[in-house]
Amino acid sequence: MQEIKSLSQFNKLKANPLLVIDFYATWCGPCKVISPVFDKLAKPHESSTSIIFAQCDVDKAKDVAQACNITAMPTFQFFKQGKKVDEVKGADPQQLTTKIGYYTTAAAKETADGGQGSSTKAGESSTATTGPASLRPLIDVNNGKLLNASLLSSVRNIASPPPAGYAVASVGGSRLLIHLPFTQAVTPSTLKITIAKDSISNAPSRIQVGTNVPVRVTKSPEGVESNDLDIEAAIGKAENTQSFNIYSDEYVNGVAELKLKASKFTGVKSLTIRIDANMSGESATVSKIGAMDIIGTKV
């Protein structure tokens, strides 16, 4: 188990195929409780040169904690080849075990394959034109917004689907607003929605999708951030919109594919998705999405 003591050491380690960091504090009770679990999960990989487990004392390496936006302990973060892909906040052994199992298995497979999935074949140009693909890597997770969502929901869960549980769910009723900005202009062609496990009654049945909804973000003198997104008015501010009524038989193997009109969804900088109803037909029943993907091309 490595101890991260400097920003330069952190930057070097995160370039590995997989880096898992336990951010802790010596005075933190929950950190001490879950530390043996983390040690046990790390032990099978202690001889690996591609799967790295590390710890970081937030009081001794404040620059690292600040760079990683650590606001609570313990926090566990996952990095793949320099990019943060996931995190677990709090002493949750089940969630930590599930995510470590998922990412270590994937990293081991990718290493065994020699990274062929992301390499260019001999004789092919690395700049060759490709067809539609997932736009998840282009979602700006730091500026994405959710309204009327549960505490376990996050934009990061959409950009990097969790190995268990769900991506997003509403709270207190069926309605849910998802605002997804992109890091560059895109042309989305398909919105794919996967139902949460055994939750067809919670699957969305009525959805509206809007493009380039303006969002004004402000900060109070105390540094508290707020925005003017409104679940009722947001879609009305969109440049273009498209509505969908989804029936249960359209969830083929648990996945519904909603085709977006090219005339309305070209050169898009953000998508705002509002779920108005679900398969239960009851306005009080929460809506839940296991995973969401947006298929399209870069502009």
From TrEMBL:
<protein>
    <submittedName>
        <fullName>Thiol-disulfide exchange intermediate</fullName>
    </submittedName>
</protein>
<dbReference type="InterPro" id="IPR036249">
    <property type="entry name" value="Thioredoxin-like_sf"/>
</dbReference>
<dbReference type="Pfam" id="PF06201">
    <property type="entry name" value="PITH"/>
</dbReference>
<feature type="compositionally biased region" description="Polar residues">
    <location>
        <begin position="118"/>
        <end position="132"/>
    </location>
</feature>
<feature type="domain" description="Thioredoxin">
    <location>
        <begin position="1"/>
        <end position="105"/>
    </location>
</feature>
<feature type="domain" description="PITH">
    <location>
        <begin position="124"/>
        <end position="299"/>
    </location>
</feature>
<comment type="similarity">
    <text>Belongs to the thioredoxin family.</text>
</comment>
<dbReference type="InterPro" id="IPR037047">
    <property type="entry name" value="PITH_dom_sf"/>
</dbReference>
<dbReference type="InterPro" id="IPR013766">
    <property type="entry name" value="Thioredoxin_domain"/>
</dbReference>
<keyword id="KW-1015">Disulfide bond</keyword>
<dbReference type="Pfam" id="PF00085">
    <property type="entry name" value="Thioredoxin"/>
</dbReference>
<dbReference type="GO" id="GO:0005737">
    <property type="term" value="C:cytoplasm"/>
</dbReference>
<dbReference type="InterPro" id="IPR010400">
    <property type="entry name" value="PITH_dom"/>
</dbReference>
<dbReference type="InterPro" id="IPR008979">
    <property type="entry name" value="Galactose-bd-like_sf"/>
</dbReference>
<dbReference type="InterPro" id="IPR017937">
    <property type="entry name" value="Thioredoxin_CS"/>
</dbReference>
<feature type="region of interest" description="Disordered">
    <location>
        <begin position="111"/>
        <end position="136"/>
    </location>
</feature>
